[in-house]
Amino acid sequence: MRTDQTFTPGGEEPVLAVSLELAAAKWKVALHDGRREKPAVHTVAQPQAAARLQAVLDLIEAHRGKWLLPAGVRIVVSYEAGQDAFWICRALQARGIKCYVVDPASIPVERHRRRAKTDRLDVISLVINLRAWLRGEQDRMHVVHVPSPQDEASRQLMRDRGELQKEVLQHRDRMRKLLATLGCWDEVDHKAFAGRLARDEVRCHDGTPLPPELRERLLRECERLALAEQQLAALEKTRQASLPAPARKRSDDLARLKGIGEVGASRLALELFWREFSNRRQVGACVGLVPQPYDSGQSQVDQGISKQGNGRVRALLIEMAWCWLRHQPGSALTQWFNQRTQSTGPNRRARRIAIVAVARRLAIALWRYLKDGVIPEGAQLKSA
């Protein structure tokens, strides 16, 4: 059977749909104009990113001429969100080609226990779903909101800070465990520990010197710890000044509320509130704190929250919700939480479930606060 056999859909606007299945060694490219039975599938494997992208553009132009499509035909490209992030989307849009980045989990797949899965099948499924989505079948896939290059780059400030903090704790914990193997319980959090170790004043449980190999390893750990602490201190000095002006304003506005610190406000401003939301449902869905019911026939099960979107923001909102209960006791959110949990007694599980709802409501309240200037009900601002 010929794969380029054509058919004529009545009244459809000509669209050349292109999908990419990205991998480190090669890309699969599927092209479909809606007039033939099966899409054309090709492989590009140039070693350089620019050359590989140009090969995709050459394929698009070659099939446009081969399939006798008009010069101004609408070209739409899609690929799944992943480690390549958004550079492909920006490069295509700079050339006047519409590009969509797709949430991989939103693409429907067969539910057979054993189903065939290859890059070729995936890219064909993606281009078919893209054409259906363009016709208005919105349930075929969900499109990811692409941030601006500045918004994407600014996230690295707080993410690097978190990684440095984690690295500092890992170095200290590693040294503490190494010392514990010899019965030495010296405190490694103080900077004086490195000096005492260099002077060979750190001893085992019986007063004998540390083995030379372990001592050398601890000295190297102290050097790496000092470097991480130095980088963290330098980042803290320039963190606020390095924020873009819009993000700095959002961060300052959030930090005015009791229970929200400067670091948490900066993370929210950079990770969540760079986006423009239309309603509260979009805010809750973006942070993955909305419930997912399962109601089929006689089976009615609460599956918990969706856990979609940014996991860093979700964890931050949960932590911020606990701080909100402590520092905003008169707010409507805190009173709502107390009313829901006062009858549960010491049931901690009920409190952990309720705090998720508080985090979702808090995210919506903070969005309204930044968007319309509406202070959350009963909340207090910090003194000047």
UniProtKB/TrEMBL annotation:
The signal peptide, as residue positions, is: none
Q: Name one GO molecular function term.
A: DNA binding
What are the GO BP annotations of this UniProt entry?
DNA transposition
Query: Where does the record place the Transposase IS116/IS110/IS902 C-terminal domain?
Result: 254-330
An example Pfam family from this entry, by short name, is Transposase_20
InterPro entries (UniProt xref): Transpos_IS110, Transposase_20
Recorded protein name is IS110 family transposase
Q: Which organism encodes this protein?
A: Paraburkholderia panacisoli
The lineage is: Bacteria, Pseudomonadati, Pseudomonadota, Betaproteobacteria, Burkholderiales
